[in-house]
Amino acid sequence: MPPFLLADLPLPTGASAPALDAPRKTCYTYAVTPSTSGTPSPLPSPSGGERTIEDSSSLGNVDWPVERTATRAVGQTDGVLSDINFGEVFPFVTKPLARDGLARYIGPTLGGQVAGLRRRDPLVLALNPIAFVAGRPYMDLSAYINLPGIAHQLDVFEAIDHSKGAVIVQMTRAGTLHPLRISFFERVRLQLAYVRIILRAAWWLIRRRTPLELLDAYARTTERLRTVVRRPLASDAPAILLGELDREFDDGLDATKDGLRHLALAMFLHMTLRQLCDKRAAPELIDDLSKGIPNNPTTLVSLDLWNLAQQAEPLAALFEKTPVARLACVLEGTDEGRSWWKCFEGFLERHGHRGEVELDITTPRWREDPTFLLQTVANYLRHTARTPTPPELLARGMRHREAAASTIRERLPWPQRSLFDRLYERYVLWLPFREAAKYTWLLGLEHARRVYRELGRRLAVEGHLKTADDVFWLRLGELTAWAESGRVSWTQPVLDQREQEWQAWMTLRPPSLIIGTRGTSDADHPLAPTLLRGTPASSGSAEGIARIILDPHDATLYPGEILITRYTDPTWTPLFFTAGALITEIGGVLSHGAVVAREVGLPAIVGVAGATSRIMSGQRIRVNATQGTVELL
User: Fold this and answer.
1) What is the pTM of this model?
2) Residue ranges of the domains in the chain?
3) Per residue in 222-280, pLDDT tens?
4) Which CATH superfamily is domain 531-632 in?
């Protein structure tokens, strides 16, 4: 694939679109992509000024545009939707093709794994957990709550997001969260499937070899998919390309397709260990059990990037003074720069399928736009000798983990020590699956992005689209109909209208909880003007300069600064090794930021309401991640 969206350029009349699998060029100018994280770049207003995102989270009286994909949701007017966890996993406004992909593939995949049924099972489609509010992915709780794996484990909501989770649990127990109607026989089917899930998970847990074999299976699938994303697409018929995508999602023999269940087992072990040790060990000691976990692919990406930064030491002055957008061209001008760039391309070959807001197939991957990576290398090059390096932090975390396990073991009564030993051993083996499935699946999403953009390129050549990326304004049914028949069923004014709707939705932030089409007001906690509270996620304390980062492309972070953002996903992990502490507005103790922060020993507080607006970049703050408080100094 060529770097930086060569096919995004409007085509002159009669010109051919560049092939999307053209050889990579080293020297190029970076394409600046709009943020899809909910904080877009200012947009021009009709009056000629600027309009920015409207914080609509407290507008309970607004009727929001709601689209539910569960077939049983038709006619239900009091359905409950929440952005719980999706606010972290899917923090973007979807374009039509991406929205259809989430509804057709991701939603049924998630629902099927939790239900213990196949993705195409009619009952899974009837309870599709994906919904959309003003284009943003939400969880359809009225569908999800029917699944025994959710209904019997309500505490997981609080573990994922403490504040919203507590409200959802309360609504469920009070009977105000109304499930979608299903028949008695369908309910029995779900219960039987749940029993099968429990028995299978128990077998996985008992058999020590299972996680080791699964890691090998993930590695094989990853290599296979790396081959798939390198394969040229230009000679395949459109219908064949779309058919291959369907088969990838339906491959029931691929062990990684059970990735959500593997992740759930890791979470189960985390919660069980916490309950076992809760009254015998301090929270920070229990947190230490998550540190220095081996085989985490997200951490390995950060270590590979750190090694690249060490190789770039002779080029540190060049990185410091050169704007990131020009680094590629400047590096090409020196022998050392060309040598380093060749190593960098090796990194992109392995990990280039990741990207910021990476579950949105409309956004570039790292191998298309490595701006964030180059900025992170520049951040790493600013580390001083006094600052612990990522390898040192992980080695220290491993020592803390073993010391914490030894201390907890001594504090437990003799009958519980054997149980602790078995759980702890399994915990270390299973925790990498918190990130493993996503790392592998993202190669499949990159392939989907390549397929759609290749079809967009062909449509642009034929004059049916202005650019290759305009394919994302199509609905999946429209694209499939063209692929099968060659007939175009859309018009340019329709596509323009969809783009305008997307732009309007980008300026809004719907509430966290929607009942019907109305939002509920977020509760404001009465706090002192200089004190913020959240959920302790990784114990420790820090004091330093706050740095608000809403868009990873603006990821300048100096060692020791406190990283403050709305959410994190795995691609933000390299910043954790530079930050002095982490504060997020979204998340719970089992969210991505919390898990990785504990692993690397970074003090972290999640679910801090209004953190990015109440704290200013450059302000000095004190973080007590053990108590969950942020003090503005």
Assistant:
1) 0.84
2) 49-206+511-520, 289-428, 531-632
3) 999 999 999 999 999 999 999 998 888 776 678 888 888 898 898 889 888 888 887 78
4) Phosphohistidine domain (3.50.30.10)
